[in-house]
Specification:
Blueprint (H helix, E strand, L loop, with lengths): L1 E5 L2 E4 L4 E8 L5 E9 L6 E7 L5 E3 L7 E6 L4 E6 L8 E13 L2 E8 L3 E6 L1
Parallel strand pairs: 2-11
Antiparallel strand pairs: 1-3, 3-8, 4-5, 4-9, 5-6, 7-8, 9-10, 9-11
Length: 123
């Protein structure tokens, strides 16, 4: 499974950006996709996730109402629309996909990651 991000860049506070991630390879095992971010000196944190079946979403409190995650299962893409951006949103954004595998009676999950794309919000 490979993940390739697109989008990102520099934007002024209050502006918008859209991130897109294409997932290729053995995608039949993917059960959820999402976006995480890592700011300088901080740990990587969840931004938003969406399940491939049902489309259930989960957002970090800090982005609720401003960011929207969406997916296209036919194209194996996941997008993140980011509105009302704040300087605190500045970070490297990583696309994530979770593969779920079964062996005998055990369930395993594996995280796949993209290389990341920089988002910088100026004040």
């Amino acid at each position: 499974v490979q993940l390739v991000e697109a989008g990102g860049g520099l934007v002024q506070a209050g502006g918008s950006l859209r991130l897109s991630c294409a997932v290729t390879g053995s995608t039949s095992s993917i059960t959820s996709m999402g976006w995480y971010r890592q700011a300088p000196g901080k740990e990587r944190e969840l931004v938003a996730t969406i399940t491939t079946v049902g489309g259930s979403t989960n957002y970090a409190d800090s982005v609720k109402g401003r960011f929207t995650i969406s997916r296209d299962n036919a194209k194996n893409t996941v997008d993140l629309q980011m509105n009302s951006l704040e300087p605190e949103d500045t970070a490297v954004y990583y696309c994530n996909a979770v593969g779920t595998y079964y062996y005998t009676n055990d369930k395993y999950e594996y995280n796949y990651w993209g290389r990341g794309t920089q988002v910088t919000v100026s004040s």
